[in-house]
């Protein structure tokens, strides 16, 4: 019996690891598609695509998965994907924006609407919550192994054309005008910085706390949305209470 329990535990851990790895590959695939669609499928002329391909290699993502994502962006294989943003209200009136990449709008809209409904929320109309967010260029540089203090980083960010810098123990986060993202990114890379993230994000103007009695519903909604293969990203104008983090 103990041997069976041990096998069951090991299998459970393996399944959890496989699921986590699958989600990582899924996110990288979507990012590869997005940047290849925006800047072209050739890494030599698309720095952002090179960055995503480096992430794929670091995650041990199979080469055929990388090629398939880039081929989708090039229209190879016939499937046509488009990005769609959905807006809605989560439990307690929390505001959420969901960015999806889909080849079937009806399927995706139905699944996202159901996710909100399952967890005490509702899908809204275009513009219902987007006014609570700013569209920003978003760059992350990890501080590990980086010999640069906040003042020095700020000087380089301003020189590169960035708008703002936030400093955390493990990373620098840089915000830019979306139209200036490529320029700022390229400038920082020329200075020798290795970027962990470089993308356009919806940044909440204000963040409200999820009511304590709605935390389980709220996290359930996020889980269901993130488990959807069509969902690329979920932007939140909300935060969990400290005891639930």
How would you describe this structure to a colleague?
- The protein has 245 residues and is of the alpha+beta class.
- It folds into 2 domains: 2-74, Arc Repressor Mutant, subunit A, CATH 1.10.10; 81-245, Alpha-Beta Plaits (2-Layer Sandwich), CATH 3.30.70.
- Helix content is 45%, strand content 23%.
- The chain has 7 helices and 10 strands.
- It has helices at 2-39, 47-58, 63-74, 105-118, 150-160, 181-190, 215-227; strands at 82-89, 95-102, 122-123, 133-142, 164-167, 171-176, 197-204, 208-209, 231-236, 238-239.
- The strands form 3 sheets. A 4-stranded antiparallel sheet has the order 3-1-2-9. It has a 4-stranded antiparallel sheet with strand order 5-6-4-7, covered by helices on one side.
- A hairpin with a 3-residue loop joins strand 5 (164-167) and strand 6 (171-176).
- The longest helix has 38 residues, at 2-39.
- The mean pLDDT is 87.
Detail the topology: elements first, then pairings.
Layout: H1 2-39, H2 47-58, H3 63-74, E1 82-89, E2 95-102, H4 105-118, E3 122-123, E4 133-142, H5 150-160, E5 164-167, E6 171-176, H6 181-190, E7 197-204, E8 208-209, H7 215-227, E9 231-236, E10 238-239
Parallel strand pairs: 8-10
Antiparallel strand pairs: 1-2, 1-3, 2-9, 4-6, 4-7, 5-6
| Overall structural domain count | 2
Question: What would CATH call the class of the largest domain?
Answer: Alpha Beta
- Based on CA atoms alone, the radius of gyration comes out at 20 Å
Mean pLDDT: 87
Approximate helicity band: 40-55%
* Spatial strand arrangement across the major sheet: 3-1-2-9
- Strands, count: 10
Assign the CATH architecture of the largest domain. 2-Layer Sandwich
Shape: globular
GO molecular function: DNA binding
Region (Disordered): 1-23
Family: Belongs to the TACO1 family.
Pfam families: TACO1_YebC_N (PF20772), Transcrip_reg (PF01709)
